[in-house]
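Support case: user asked for a sample of complex input and structure output to validate their parser. Sending the pair below.
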Amino acid sequence: MELIDLFSMREAFNRQSVILCFNGPISRSLIEEIGNALRNYLEADNTHPSAAMDVFSVYIEMTQNIRHYALHKGWAEPDSSATVVVANDGEGQYLVSAGNLVEQEDGEVLMLKIAELGTQDKTQLKALYKEQLRKPRDAGVSSGAGLGLIDIARKARHPMQATLKKLDDGRAFVSLSVAI
Amino acid sequence: MKDFSISGTQSSPAIQGNWDGGVLSMQGDSYPENSYDLFSQVFEWVKSFLKESDRPLVLELQLLYLNTSSIKALMDILDMLEDAHQSGRAVSVNWRYDQRNERVAELAEEFKEDCTFPFTIIGQS
């Protein structure tokens, strides 16, 4: 097995102010456990209760979206994995990022939706949210571009950043980053 | 008759239904992966109460963080209350929250926007 260069990892993490990261199959209980670690960190860091709730909320919506997507696709464990990183710049801003495998077409739909949400102001996002809230339960679930995504957009300080990297087998890796 | 009680977990609220008193209470965070499993029984209880009695129903809420799945589920319940109110039934909601976290009040306010029955949001220290 390749030797792990912990020092390089540490340097990279410190440079980007990473406080929490995870890579691998993401189960429901793992989402909760990591969520706990995040909550404890936020409390220890004396984050304002409403800001802490926003960070936690974005983390939950992102990871649960990834879970729902993988379940919906009927993918087995290795493919239903996530890469999740939370960073804290030390000046009251958190960056929550998550990435996962998707079908290329689903990834493209998601990228369009994210770009579109990025052009909306608070009032427009609220209207979109209320509209989506009243749609039938499964609408938007396949691309993950439903209520959860709009909720994330409403809590974000700046427009969400997303990337889509095409892979060889018709799939792609999508990543989403949100500043709170 | 049909009282019920669901224990809270880390990710789901404690819920109590008091049939004789006409009170449905919920406390805590709600972020289960599938809120439908949890809330469908609550929905059915409220539906039965509204159908089988003509007494007032009060929702006593001390909910905190709700994921979007839970928000949808709660909205379904509140819509049912709104319909009952439109038909002349006495229904109301009281939502208590810790004043230090205005997000909870904001969430409650957004639910309140779609309701015309008494909906009180109470900040506590």
